[in-house]
Design goal:
203 residues, mainly alpha, minor pseudopilin epsh fold, 3-stranded antiparallel sheet, 44% helix, globular, binds manganese (II) ion
């Protein structure tokens, strides 16, 4: 990520680091246009708008903003919803990779830590998939590195982030319908299954 693009006010929509059709056949070109150019862009625009009256909050990084114990009551919900949307989508799009590069979830995972925590890759994949399928309505499945330096699978509702818990994401699946509905319709399981081919782990 280029500094100041999505790290601080005024937030700017970072271009996709690959072509819109580069994730075919797992994620289709039309979905990538809507998801990145419309949904992600809207979170950025709304976050900037919400921060307009608050110079002190504009000076914070996105993580500092999201981890802040208190925010102005009139703007709190808007800032957390849209700031969370920016944080989650920034990670999500940065960690998708064209299948031609061969960076699947499994071969970018910290294998030893996964095995130690979950027993095996297959067991981790099963538990993470169950979490992704279990999110009611809109949200995310997240493998987070906690403040205690442990790996933990957590469901995130709407645009919650792990940041408030001082955890950071290692793997993040967007299970909002806007992420899959054009291609997969209601079949979230098929979309989640496809994501393992193109979603890489963060460091
Ligand atoms: Mn999304």
């Amino acid at each position: 990520m280029t500094p100041n693009q999505t790290d601080r006010y005024p937030y700017v929509l970072p271009p996709l680091p690959y072509a819109y059709d580069a994730l075919e056949p797992y994620i289709d070109e039309e979905t990538m246009h809507y998801h990145h150019d419309k949904h992600f862009a809207t979170y950025i625009a709304n976050l900037n708008k919400a921060l307009e009256p608050y110079p002190a909050l504009q000076a914070l990084t996105l993580e500092q903003l999201l981890a802040r114990p208190s925010l102005p009551p009139a703007a709190k919900e808007t800032i957390l919803n849209n700031g969370g949307g920016v944080y989650n989508h920034r990670f999500f799009f940065e960690h998708l990779t064209p299948p031609a590069e061969g960076k699947t979830s499994q071969n970018t995972a910290p294998a030893e830590r996964i095995n130690k925590t979950f027993g095996s890759w297959e067991q981790f994949k099963k538990e993470f998939t169950e979490t992704a399928m279990g999110v009611f309505g809109s949200g995310w499945a997240c493998l987070a590195l906690t403040r205690a330096n442990e790996l933990k699978i957590i469901p995130l509702a709407n645009q919650e982030t792990p940041v408030a818990k001082r955890a950071r994401p290692l793997l993040l699946f967007d299970v909002w319908e806007h992420a899959y509905y054009l291609k997969y319709k209601n079949a979230r399981a098929d979309y989640v299954d496809a994501l393992w081919n193109v979603a890489e782990f963060g460091a």
